[in-house]
Design goal:
single chain, about 240 residues, alpha+beta, Beta Polymerase, domain 2, five-stranded mixed β-sheet, 10 helices
């Protein structure tokens, strides 16, 4: 079920929280219904803040005709998952609190955490370390060589489907922008394109389609352009230390 009106969706979400989490300190509705791009299969992404059990946990249910994803946290567990967001440069939890409609806020924590998460989303991730950048350049270099040597459409498809995502990761995180997966990655690329007057959100997937049909040149050229923004190809001299055993 899809409700076009965000306020209507928020009413459904608020009723759910009041019924199932009457002691909630705060709760937020995020995701596609708040962004305004909900589809017929969209769900309600609801984050609930408790002061103890059953948090932390997540649960998938149906309520009021909607599929619902519940993310139930204490403030400590919320901080833990936000830290994981920072480390992987993918702000899933931060967006589920920061880019939201507040459903309930009994002690001010709803507004406080929403503002803190939104500020961090807007600030972007930390810069890549030299080691992180070199690993991305090396990985992409190897994938480019593998794609150029691929002899069947199946192999080209398998390599291209990985390469475009690594190229996007370098493009975004290389300038302190957040990364994503699936539709989220395309949204991040589109946001980058809007600022830089580029077309990566179209060109990278188009390169994958072309490679799958036998022409890898477009994706190779586009990826090399991205690589050249961050030091170019890297193979000779690359070194990665392992943890002592």
């Amino acid at each position: 079920m899809m409700i076009q009106d965000t306020a209507q969706a928020a009413d459904v979400a608020r009723r759910l929280v009041m019924e199932q989490f009457p002691s909630a300190l705060a709760a937020w509705l995020g995701g596609s219904v708040v962004r305004g791009d909900a589809s017929a299969t969209s769900d309600l992404d609801i984050t609930v803040l408790l002061d103890g059990l059953p948090a932390p946990m997540r649960r998938s249910i149906e309520y009021g005709g909607w599929p619902v994803e519940l993310f139930v946290h204490t403030e400590a567990s919320l901080a833990h998952f936000c830290e994981k967001d920072r480390q992987r440069r993918q702000p899933t939890m931060m967006r589920l609190v920061g880019e939201t409609v507040i459903l309930t806020d009994t002690d001010g924590s709803g507004a406080r955490l929403q503002q803190a998460c939104l500020a961090e989303v807007e600030a972007g991730p930390s810069a890549l370390t030299t080691a992180e950048l070199d690993l991305l350049r090396y990985t992409i270099t190897c994938l480019l060589d593998d794609l150029a040597d691929a002899s069947t459409d199946d192999v080209r498809t398998a390599i291209a489907s990985v390469l475009w995502q690594d190229a996007a990761r370098l493009l975004l995180t290389g300038v302190r922008r957040w990364y994503g997966t699936g539709k989220g990655l395309l949204r991040e690329l589109s946001a980058y394109d809007a600022i830089h007057a580029t077309n990566h959100a179209h060109d990278l997937p188009a390169g994958v389609r072309a490679a799958s049909a036998g022409d890898s040149s477009t994706l190779i050229e586009h990826t090399e352009q991205i690589l050249n923004l961050h030091g170019g190809r890297l193979f000779a001299g690359f070194e990665l230390a392992a943890e002592p055993v």
